[in-house]
Amino acid sequence: MVIAAIIGIILLTILIVWLIDKFVPRKLKPIINLVLWALIIFLGYITFMSVYKEIQFNQLKVERYKVVIDRLVDIRDSQLAYKEVNGEYAGSFDKLINFIENDSIPITQRRDSTVLDVERTRAFGGVETFKTITIIDTLDYWNVKDSIFKGDKRYKNLAKVGVGKEDAKFKLQAGKLEDIPVFEASVDKSIVLDGQEKYLIEKERQAVSIAGVKGASVKIGSMEEVNTSGNWGKDLSVKE
Q: What is the pLDDT of residues 64-75, one digit of tens each?
């Protein structure tokens, strides 16, 4: 919108220069023409800078989103491990980080076995009837921080956004949706893009394209539906 207005002003200025060349006395032409061409050059510079700033902004936002998204993927992976052990998601980073630091994930093996179905055998007058059951054997345990983070201690800063506004943290929620555990970790784009032009940030918060990050925040999971995915295109994460 701003760029279109500037281009319109430049075209109007060029038209004025042409009209002056046609109708203004010869003595005044050099001065007026000089002023108008200076204005055209100035407006051209503003137009260029507007476009260039948007290009720079788009490059910066992708770099920052990648940092944020990779941290959100870590949160999602940690939450899935927490749910596997506890049957629900962690509602705070303190709980989640403590789990990563101190708990283990069981390594299990499923196998089918045939056993006597006592009730059906009794119902059939003593005729032996069998049923198949699934047995889950626990083979070993994996330490969470080693299995997910491979010895890296970045999990200690799991709550921190890492870019944008200094010391900003993700918002973490957990609960149940029709008795099904759900969670959501998110951060507003204005926090991630802190320090940039406000009109560019607001424009980005209104983005709906599925190629980038859709919506006003960068998030993974949902408190409104059973979903553990993020609201970004796959090209923005190196972990998925």
A: 999 999 999 999
Which amino acid, residue 157?
N
HSE of 129, CA atoms in CB hemisphere, 13 A: 11
Distance of alpha carbon 100 from alpha carbon 53, whole angstroms: 42
Looking at the DSSP assignment, which residues form a beta bridge with residue 21?
A: none
What are 117's two structure tokens?
């179905």
Q: Which domain holds residue 207?
A: 57-103+151-236
Give the integer Cα–Cα distance in Å for 161 and 169: 5
Residue ranges with strand state E in the chain: 104-116, 130-143, 171-177, 180-188, 217-221
39 and 157 belong to one structural domain: no
Q: Model confidence at 140, in pLDDT bands (50, 70, 90)?
A: very low
- Pair 231, 171 in one domain: yes
Threshold 0.85, pTM exceeds: no
The angle subtended at Cα 213 by Cα 196 and Cα 171, nearest 5°, is 80
- What helix, strand, coil percent values describe the chain, rounded to 5? 50, 20, 25
pLDDT at residue 119 above 50? yes
119, two tokens: 């009730």
150-190: pLDDT as tens digits: 878 999 999 999 999 999 999 999 999 999 999 999 999 99
Hey, is 150 helix, strand or coil?
Answer: coil
Q: How large is the C-alpha radius of gyration of the chain?
A: 31
